[in-house]
Amino acid sequence: MDKKDLLKLAAEMTLEEKALQMTQLSPDMLYHLAPANLTGPLREWRFEDEELWKVGSTLGPLGASYLKKLQKDYLERSGKKIPLLFMSDVIHGYVTIMPIPLAQGCTFDPELTEEAAAAVAKESAVSGLHVTFSPMADLVRDPRWGRVMESCGEDPYLNGVMAAATVRGYQGRDPREKGKIASCVKHFAAYGQPEGGREYNTVDMSRGVLRDFYLPAYEAAIRAGAAMVMTSFNTVERTPATCSRFLLRKVLREEWGFDGVVISDFSAVEELMNHSVAADDLEAGEKSIHAGMDIEMMSGVYAGTLRRLLEQGRITQQEIDECVMRILELKNRLGLFENPYKDADEQEEQRLLYCGEHLELARRFARESMVLLKNQSALPIEPSAKIGLAGPFACTGNILGGWHCEGKPERTETLQHALETVCGDRMVTAMSTHFIRGEKDVPDQVEEAVERLKDCDICIAAVGEPEWETGEASSKTCLRLSASQEKLIHALKAAGKKVVTVIFSGRPLDIAPVLEDSDAVLQAWFPGSAGAGAAADILLGKYNPSGRLSMSFPRNVGQIPVYYNYYNTGRPAAAKADNYVSRYLDCPNSPLFPFGYGLSYTTFACEGLQVEQTAQGGERCACETGRAGDRAVCTASVRVSNRGERSGETVVQLYIRDVSASVVRPMTELKAFRRISLEPGEEAQAAFTVTEDMLSFYNEEEQWAWEPGAFEIMVGLDCEHVEKKEIFVPARTGGLEE
Ligand code: BGC
Known about the structure:
- There is one protein chain.
- The protein is an alpha/beta fold.
- The chain contains 23 helices and 25 strands.
- Strands 9-6-5-4-3-2-1-10 form an eight-stranded parallel sheet.
- The chain is globular, with a radius of gyration of 26 Å.
- Bound molecules: beta-D-glucopyranose.
């Protein structure tokens, strides 16, 4: 359809049709509720049965035959024949489940992330989906919050690169194409910083912190073309994001030029009343419309109030029409007016879902995402060693992680199976009890386990947190392994065993209590459908681990939030030996394991940093953040060498610090990285172009600009171990802006 036809269609729609186009419900509501039993929320929301069949989009289950039938039933009842838009939460896989996003961040591999998102899009598209509520670009610093698993971690640049790659994977060049879906980036904005890590709690931060850390990743997703944006539940600067004109009109639409659809989070419009910024549903609707919030998810405020608001002159027809046009344009962009069923296809479902190719991709992705945190000559396991395996993650397929859609734990390979396939009767398994919902711990069978594994040379403790304790509404104040799991590790060590601790979790846990008794620690996260095989590849040395932490590990819960890109204080702990410095009495400031950290079975060196400044007003160059008109400031290069005996991959990381500026700047900030693969004895140069954009930040006037002066250029293999050089960048003659 061309724009003219869309405008004509919109002009013919009644006000009620428009209000319902702007409403999203679950498809089950359309099917299972007859007029007489419209109860509960639906009644309160004032929906009548026939109105349900006029909603513009649905949120929920997929499946080609189900969604084809739904679309057909819908279009048969619809006078205007505007197709229904199907949205759902396909977060890290539909049937083939990829590692959780926090683990994806640890790959530092946007190409592989894009490839995986493309596979996820294919499975979803043939199953009838049009839009996925992913990526989640919320920056996270607090592992008490359960949703850190859905983020790519604590760094704005890494988060942005990964969010953009995910969007490209889902949407391709055009979401209308076969096998592509539209992407909805969420939760705009700053949902990742709830006070105390408590789910849905208040978010409060300065405008500068918001700009420095929290907004860039959403912006990167939008620059990559994300078709939709979801608002967050929280407040930002005392206004709930769902009705924030600052966020939705100024930042999103004016500054970033976003012209796609904005959807609220689940019932967030109605929740404006709980936030005490709306006295009643009329005010909730009015404020959301003023902010340009197009679709209301799972509550009926728009449906119930738009007519009255218009009649009372509290909103304008134009405001409504703008929302409706954006929704119709999205449907058009997906080609739904020509083909309302898009790619839904039962036969293709048979061919694609959980196919060998996708499982193989999931295994590669999972391998790259696991992080070797400690290794004292325990890994890889010797080919002849007798291996013991124990712990609640030894024999379970519950390793997919939250939001695993149609992923099936019961057909997911277990670690025991993956290891036995290779090691056969060199394997002994004990204490294979599982977590049970509602129970605090797995049954304590530690003594039996130690007895059973007494002849083993090396013991793997497969431990972690149950997957249902991560994701939405899963905040916790204790991040330690459960008592029986800690006991298992201590007991194996006390029995004289080499202990390899493999951790399955959706967040950095508090693992300090078991670190000493673990000879090696592999952070496996929730690695998805092929995760057990991936872990076995690493444990047995078929794959050399290359994951790097996307989020710092705390030394204990009291230290949270602990993250690498902090602002300095007037009394930094390192500067003075006395007491009156910014520190704890009982714990260092540094994390247990820092951002960017991860071990390998080989030894990499990164040295000989050379920084060469570019002539003033240097070349314009392609900028990694995609901003136009960027210019080179210097090049930084290092020699990376593999000094060990195995081939492997490492991640060379470029950090920058603005030594003095008009406002405080982070002590260090990741600006670029490269994954490099080296054979034993091989060397390579890793070179980076530092650009003006990398030196820029939002100043007090909220302008994106860099300030002349000194900058530290740092390159290394994690954020703490870097070589650095200082450069002085003078003001550009001819002015800063062009
Ligand atoms: C979550 C969103 C999700 C939505 C729809 C909400 O509770 O916060 O992330 O997309 O539900 O399922």
